[in-house]
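fyi for ur records
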Amino acid sequence: IWDYYKLPIGGVLILLAILISVIHYYATYKDPVLTLMLVNSSIDAEDTTIQHSFDSFMEENNYNPARQEVAFSKNLFLDMSNPQGATGQTLVSLDVMTGGRGISAIFSDPDNFDGLAERSYFLDITDYLTDEQIREHQDDLVYTADTDTNERYAAGIRLTKEKCKWLQDTGAYEECVVGICYDSNNHPDAQKA
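which gave:
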């Protein structure tokens, strides 16, 4: 009997596995509130510190952690001084993701942030800060020139472990620069975070 029915049984088992996989995906899917990239961070791939560091953000903004999350990638390594090989491939991936408006913000070590800013990944961060916040962080703003107009704008804010509780809690960087990207769905939330 097995010789005659093995192909239909195998086909049914494959379809059943696909169906279970699709159901599992939709049952456990969480809508990303923010999508963050951490470039050259010192966080271990298995570390959950960063994920939990956004719990208070989720609660304060009335997001449902069972259905929504702050999505992030913490395993992105770049060397903008040598944009060949793996760095070149990573930059192509970032180009696609920022072009598709799939990244809310990028955190990067200061050495590589300028190279990312030159690729026009970031919005003028002062458009999303209050006047008080701009005055408070004036010395920490990182400027770049728009590649089309050559106009200078603030592409990010420099954060240090001494001044930033989030960096102290997560240990992601000693110092980093964060910039808001072209993700039209999440700008208000990127500002809050």
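The CA atoms of residues 126 and 154 lie 7 Å apart. thats all i got for now
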